[in-house]
TrEMBL record:
Record's protein name: Probable GTP-binding protein EngB
Boundaries of every EngB-type G domain copy: 34-210
PROSITE patterns, per the entry: G_ENGB
Keywords: Cell cycle, Cell division, GTP-binding, Magnesium, Metal-binding, Nucleotide-binding, Septation
Free-text function comment from the UniProt entry: Necessary for normal cell division and for the maintenance of normal septation.
Protein's gene: engB
CDD domains assigned: YihA_EngB
Amino acid sequence: MSDTQSAPHPEKLNYRTVQFLTSAPTLAECPPDNGAEVAFAGRSNAGKSSAINALTGNSKLARTSKTPGRTQLINFFSVSDQQRLVDLPGYGYAKVARSMKDEWQRHLAFYLEKRQCLRGLVLLMDIRQPLKEFDLHMLTWAVESGLPAHILLTKADKLKNGPANNTRFAVEKALKEQGLDTGVTVQIFSSTKKTGLDKLERKLNAWLALEQ
Ligand SMILES: Nc1nc2c(ncn2[C@@H]2O[C@H](COP(=O)(O)OP(=O)(O)OP(=O)(O)O)[C@@H](O)[C@H]2O)c(=O)[nH]1
Ligand SMILES: [Mg+2]
């Protein structure tokens, strides 16, 4: 898969000192649109908040839950005063009222389309259920918008190495076949076992580099 254009040796950022910045219910309430930002998106329960916690080594930073739909606001975390991680509300949560669902998706779409400082999208999918309808929708949007995307096949601890790798190959193949592989990379990930954390960090370092 083609990798994204980025500085050859981007600065290694320290994710251990990441702090919660703010929660925004709408685009208007997001922090100033400057510097560089990477958003974590994915279906409800895919493990977005857990991935941010694993990355930062802070299990209490982003709220996780067994109840899907825990993250309902756009949550911002600062890596530095010019670099942020964003925990987006999960999509596909069936138990909230239709009107509320539409409302979130509207804000999500607004954020994705209007945010100038957005450098890349980390798209999380449960390795046991990859490439669902909304994942494809997000990827299509990212590819068409020229926004690089990095797929985390999460909860890889639920599978043995062989099946996990086979899923990764199958996902890469499916993306290629659907013309969704431009600027898109795929990796295996587990927040519980910390699998693939170094790879994710390298991707974030490249995307968040300020001299791009
Ligand atoms: N086994 C395993 N469970 C995980 C992993 N990552 C997350 N989980 C579990 O999956 C559930 C959902 O995780 P969250 O991180 O809250 O998911 P989310 O994508 O932020 O969900 P929403 O905020 O609802 O969109 C929790 O019960 C987590 O403990 C993982 O790597 N392995
Ligand atoms: Mg969450």
